[in-house]
């Protein structure tokens, strides 16, 4: 009996140790959700690996936390569910900090101040927001640009609005004429148009919005402060500026969000 009890106790201890090992190993991995077709912020290359401005940021953050990064591609709308449910530890996808999002999610400090762009055919007679009146326009579902447009529907007076699940589908409809203007992050639009040879598309209007891009994390995540501290260190030692210049082609402006360490935001201001 004593021998049997000893064996069972040993097996139980081994099981607990094994499970503890699995838990410890899991904590060594930073699980990241990302929309996989959002260049230059994040996208999959020909080998199927993630690349991009925010991919470099989150990879460097994980390195500084002595963790491995594991990026999973998700539909844009699914990113918010994955973060809220704890399925992922962080989300990268040129996400704007908003008051509404802060109610259900946490964000790190911002590292980029964005602007929207209105993409059109180069033959379109659209040179300002007033020219959107009576036009068929579109953007990405649940995105900041979509919210911005819907809040200004009466002011802009556009004829119809179409919501898309991907940038590729949005630009396909723009190119085919199903919509006359695509409103999205201006950096992403310019990058996409540069990759499309003889697309006949251009950014006709720039809309300064001051929206701030950051890494989204589950509400009050235990990793939030550590990730935020890593971002501050990257800003202080020049790493963030190097990543910015690599993907944007120019150095970040002095005093910009890209080089200014900040605390974890509690508001979108």
Automatic annotation (TrEMBL):
CDD domains: PBP2_peptides_like. It is found in: Cell envelope. One of its GO terms (molecular function) is ligand-gated monoatomic ion channel activity. Keywords: Signal. Its main location: other. Residues 29-251 form the Solute-binding protein family 3/N-terminal domain. Transmembrane segments: none annotated. Pfam families: SBP_bac_3. One of its GO terms (cellular component) is membrane. Residues 1-26 form the signal peptide. Residues 29-250 form the Ionotropic glutamate receptor C-terminal domain. Belongs to the bacterial solute-binding protein 3 family. This is Cystine-binding periplasmic protein.
């Amino acid at each position: 009996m004593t021998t049997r009890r000893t064996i069972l106790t040993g097996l139980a201890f081994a099981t607990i140790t094994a499970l503890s090992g699995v838990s410890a190993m899991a904590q060594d991995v930073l699980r990241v959700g990302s929309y996989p077709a959002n260049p230059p912020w994040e996208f999959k290359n020909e080998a199927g690996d993630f690349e991009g401005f925010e991919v470099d940021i989150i990879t460097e953050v994980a390195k500084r936390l002595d963790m491995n990064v594991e990026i999973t591609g998700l539909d844009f709308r699914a990113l918010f569910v994955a973060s809220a449910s704890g399925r992922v530890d962080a989300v990268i996808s040129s996400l704007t900090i908003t008051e509404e999002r802060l109610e259900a999610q946490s964000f790190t400090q911002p590292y980029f101040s964005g602007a929207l762009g209105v993409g059109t055919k180069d033959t379109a007679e659209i040179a300002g927001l007033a020219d959107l009146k009576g036009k068929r326009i579109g953007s990405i579902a649940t995105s900041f640009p979509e919210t911005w447009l819907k809040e200004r529907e009466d002011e802009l007076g556009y004829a119809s609005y179409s919501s898309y699940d991907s940038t590729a589908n949005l630009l396909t409809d723009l190119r085919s004429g199903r919509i006359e203007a695509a409103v999205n992050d201006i950096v992403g639009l310019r990058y996409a148009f540069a990759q499309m040879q003889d697309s006949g598309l251009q950014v006709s209007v720039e809309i300064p919005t001051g929206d701030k891009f950051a890494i989204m994390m589950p509400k009050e995540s235990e990793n939030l402060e550590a990730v935020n501290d890593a971002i501050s260190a990257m800003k202080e030692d020049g790493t963030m500026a190097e990543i910015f210049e690599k993907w944007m082609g120019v150095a970040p402006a002095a005093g910009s969000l890209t080089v200014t360490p900040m605390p974890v935001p509690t508001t979108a201001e």
